[in-house]
Amino acid sequence: MHIPDGYLSLAITVPAFIITIVVWAISFKKIKLSDQQVPMMGLLTALFFAAMFVNYPVIGGTTAHLLGGAAIGLILGPFAGSISLTIIIVLQAFLFGDGGITTLGANVLNMGIIGVFVPCAIFLVTNKVFKIKAISSLYATIFISAFVGDLLAALSAGTELGLSTGTFHYGLGVVLPAMALNHSIIGVAEGIVTVILIGTLLKLRPDVLEKSPILGKLSMFKNKKVNGE
Question: Would you say residue 53 lies in a domain?
Answer without folding.
Answer: yes
